[in-house]
Write a structure and sequence with these properties.
Structural class: alpha/beta
Radius of gyration: 25 Å
Distance between the termini: 35 Å
Number of strands: 16
Shape: globular
Strand content: 5-15%
Strand order of the largest sheet: 1-2-5-4-6-7-12-13-14-15
Helix content: 40-55%
Number of helices: 20
Largest sheet: 10 strands, mixed
């Protein structure tokens, strides 16, 4: 059980997300490897020195005199056999000697900072693949399981591998999907589709209180993930929490694009968001619509906000951005060092030719950027130990990814290359020149302490981009999606806020100096913030939709189950 909990928690930190990494081309990997080989060959004497040092380590291991030990926090070497069994102890030490030799060798190479980051990232991927724990002969836990099960663990592991080859396109499964059924035990909040176009469905959820706040809220989800992350289960449903607190709740459900729909651009998605806002206005009668969005949905929502401001349209009320980076820097994430101008051009051309980037290809590419956590972890669990992958709702949702329009990917890369959100009226997109300084809506921004995908210090930079006078920044003690799915009741939950209200400081480090820890979920604080910006209370609607936009299919709608 503890092993399964570990798998769930670790994998939830690395749920896939849309960002500049979609612009990494295989040439970026090959170029980094070629650089290492070129630098190595340029100085044979240096190579001989490191070979000699590694040889000395090998001799010490053979004679039992090596003092190399795994990091106590390295979960791969927790089994006591690594410490007490001479065979396994030597195997671990050989691996650690290679790891140490590679690290010393890299430190000696004449590389600039960017090249060194690339070299470190590539070599870590290679070294992780060489770990003895990835093989049956080198994994004592797997061998014990094999003996204890009378060989059944090996048979089950082979069955799991066969299923992945046949049904999962060769990728090791991260989740057992069998227990989850949309509309039955996932995405169960009552609601209905009230508007449908070729690109999206608009869902309205049934109120659970007699009175509701007059100003509704519309959620704009990422284009690469399905919208029901907001309604995974009653215990962790953002939708249910909003409804139970009187918020009129609407969500966009993006359609999974086929190859023919790979021409959908950011212009089309922004137009659809504004169309959805107009429909919400028509149904509720509210002149203002509050908007919340996460990750790449937050980038889309920011362009929507900019476009409405440019047009003098005051439809947007308060804006919430969760785990979203608008001002990226190359060193924000480890794999960012691999993103190159040439690589992005190649990735863009390939996407244009293919029409779409398939969900499976995105998931595979993302997994190989974090192989220890997203590949080898599951190779050991599913194949060597013969265990089922965890049945975890967040991972079920993450595995249910969508294709990405090639044209939209090009637009996201443009945002990254030009740093469009940091400019004021210089980059044109969605029929206007992006300028967030004209957006004056009250702003709530959320970051996650352990977020490896959209690091919290990168999300904090968004506080400097908008023209809003009222900006709140909250830091959740969690990773990417776990930062959002942080309902009340978790005894380990905590979040950070400044001790006093006032103008936010310029940098994340300065903000951290004035922040204090608060026990519990950040949801109640956010809900109080939302309710203050949601108008007066009115009688809850007795029916969903209206005459022009009648209720159609029940939530979560048709587009989330459509296969492409």
């Amino acid at each position: 059980m503890a092993k399964q909990d570990k798998l769930e928690n670790e994998a939830a930190q690395y749920t896939s997300a849309l960002g500049p990494l979609v612009g990494i081309a295989r040439e970026d990997f090959m170029g980094a490897v070629a650089l290492l080989l070129r630098e190595t060959a340029s100085d044979p004497q240096r190579m001989m020195k490191h070979a000699r040092d590694m040889g000395e380590d090998m001799v010490k291991i053979l004679t039992g005199k090596s003092d190399l030990k795994p990091d106590p926090k390295d979960k791969r070497f927790m089994d006591p056999a690594w410490q007490y069994n001479p065979f396994f102890r030597a195997g671990a030490q050989y691996y650690l000697a290679v790891q140490k030799g590679m690290r010393n060798w890299l430190e000696d190479l004449e590389l600039d900072d960017l090249e060194r980051d690339r070299a470190n990232f590539i070599t870590n991927i290679i070294i992780d693949s060489l770990a003895p724990t990835n093989t049956l002969v080198g994994n004592p836990t797997a061998q014990k399981r094999l003996i204890d099960s009378g060989g059944l663990s090996l048979i089950k592991g082979l069955q799991n591998a066969y299923k992945d080859m046949v049904h999962n396109k060769g990728m090791v499964s991260q989740v057992d999907k069998r227990p989850f059924k949309l509309g039955e035990n996932v995405a169960t909040s009552k609601g209905a589709v009230v508007h449908r176009t070729e690109m999206f469905e608009l869902l309205q959820y049934a109120p659970t209180t007699d009175e509701v706040y007059a100003i509704p809220q519309l959620t704009i989800p990422p284009q690469i993930n399905k919208m029901y992350i907001n309604d995974l289960s009653p215990e962790k449903s953002v939708v249910k929490y909003q409804l139970d607190n009187g918020i009129q709740t609407f969500i966009i459900s993006w359609r999974n694009p086929s190859k023919e729909q790979g021409i959908w651009t950011m212009d089309d998605y922004v137009r659809s968001c504004i169309e959805a806002m107009e429909v919400v206005k028509d149904i509720t009668g509210s002149d203002k619509i509050n908007v919340s969005a996460g990750c790449s949905g937050g980038q889309t929502a920011s362009i929507v906000a900019s476009k409405l401001a440019a047009e003098g349209n005051d439809l947007l009320g308060a804006l919430t951005l969760m785990v979203c980076v608008l001002h990226p820097m190359q060193n924000d994430i480890e794999a960012g060092s691999l993103v190159s101008e040439n690589g992005m051009k190649l990735a863009r051309r390939r996407a244009e030719k293919a029409g779409i980037i398939k969900a499976d290809d995105l998931a595979r590419g993302f997994a190989w950027l974090r192989p220890n956590d997203l590949i080898w972890n599951y190779v050991i669990n599913n194949y060597l130990l013969g265990a089922d992958p965890p049945a975890f709702d967040v991972l079920f949702w993450n595995a249910d990814a969508t294709n990405l329009s090639g044209s939209l990917m090009g637009d996201f890369l443009t945002l990254y290359e030009t740093l469009a959100f940091t400019k004021q009226g210089e980059v044109e997109m969605a029929g206007h020149k992006i300028d967030l300084s004209k957006v004056t809506s009250d702003l709530f921004i959320l970051g996650g302490v352990t977020d490896h995908i959209t690091p919290w210090k990168a999300t904090y930079r968004s506080t400097r981009l908008f023209g809003s006078k009222d900006i709140t920044y909250v830091l959740s003690q969690s990773g990417h999606m776990q930062a959002i799915l942080n309902p009340p009741g978790n005894p380990k939950a905590k979040y950070y806020l400044p001790k006093k209200k006032g103008k936010l400081p310029d940098t994340a480090d300065q903000w951290l100096e004035i922040a204090e820890e608060n026990a519990g979920s950040w949801w109640p604080f956010w809900m109080e913030w939302m309710q203050k910006r949601s108008g007066k209370k009115v009688a809850a609607p007795k029916e969903l939709g209206n005459a022009e936009h009648p209720a159609m299919d029940p939530a979560p709608g048709l587009y989330v189950v459509e296969e492409r």
